[in-house]
Specification:
21% helix, 6-stranded antiparallel beta sheet, Rossmann fold, Elongation Factor Tu (Ef-tu), domain 3, 7 helices, alpha/beta, 247 residues
């Protein structure tokens, strides 16, 4: 049974026609960077809900959820219509495998994200732990157009702060934009260009990878990583590929 916390919308930010971030005030909620919660909206006597990763860090006061609206969806159109002061439901049990406590000791941590799947990785990147544990942290973040690339300013700040450790590679597939890679993430990985650009080798011995976003990307990248000798991670069978599927 789900236990709901009563939340209030503080801000509903619109990045583009279909991309939003909602900021929520609730009673204190303990979680680990990278975890997700259930977000719900009352619809009559029912609560419509689905899982969303938290973008904020555990030390920040407001819960932050990054999402895209689906035209024929049941919940996302309701979320887009919320205004400051509106009520929203938040589950009190965060969960998920995309946390650093799941990652063994390795030199390099790789994040692969499409669209709103970047959310949990931003939460992790804003904490101190990755910079204390890993020699290199790589974020591959793929979207269709430049306006879909939310949090770019936040990521640029992290890049400036951790110049030697952080490697941020933005992918934009439908536009040619200076400073970004005009390619599918999977194509860039399969060709070997990703390892050339980062000057790192993706291997089971030196790397752990985390994947979040659309199912096609996750399946394709997982297959390519397995060809390099990496394997799926679970608590019962530790590996080097940790995934969280959104859609």
């Amino acid at each position: 049974m789900i236990t709901w916390l009563q939340g209030k919308v503080v801000k509903n930010k619109r990045w583009s026609a279909e991309l939003f971030t909602i900021y929520i005030k609730t009673e204190p909620l303990e979680f680990k960077a990278g975890q997700f919660i259930l977000i719900g909206v009352k619809d009559g006597s029912d609560i419509l809900y689905r899982p969303y990763s938290l973008v904020n860090t555990p030390d920040e006061n407001l819960l932050e959820v990054h999402f895209n609206t689906v035209k024929d969806g049941t919940l996302s159109p309701l979320l887009t219509d919320l205004s400051p002061g509106d009520s929203i439901q938040v589950s009190n049990r965060p969960t998920g495998l995309l946390t650093l406590e799941e990652v063994p000791h390795v030199n390099n941590l790789w994040f692969f994200a499409t669209g709103t799947g970047v959310g949990p990785f931003i939460s992790i990147l804003k904490t101190a732990e990755p910079w204390q544990r890993f020699k290199k942290v790589v974020l591959c973040y793929a979207v269709k157009t430049l306006e879909d690339m939310a949090y770019i300013k936040e990521l640029d700040k992290i890049q400036s702060k951790y110049k030697e450790q952080f490697c941020f590679i933005p992918f934009i597939t439908r536009e040619v934009v200076a400073g970004t890679v005009n390619s599918r993430l999977t194509t860039y990985l399969e060709s070997g260009d990703l390892e050339k650009k980062t000057q790192l080798v993706l291997s089971a011995k030196t790397s752990h990878t985390m994947l979040c976003g659309n199912a096609d990307m996750i399946n394709d990248v997982t297959q390519l990583l397995e060809q390099k000798g990496l394997r799926r991670h679970s608590r019962s069978k530790p590996g080097q590929i940790t995934i969280e599927k959104y859609y």
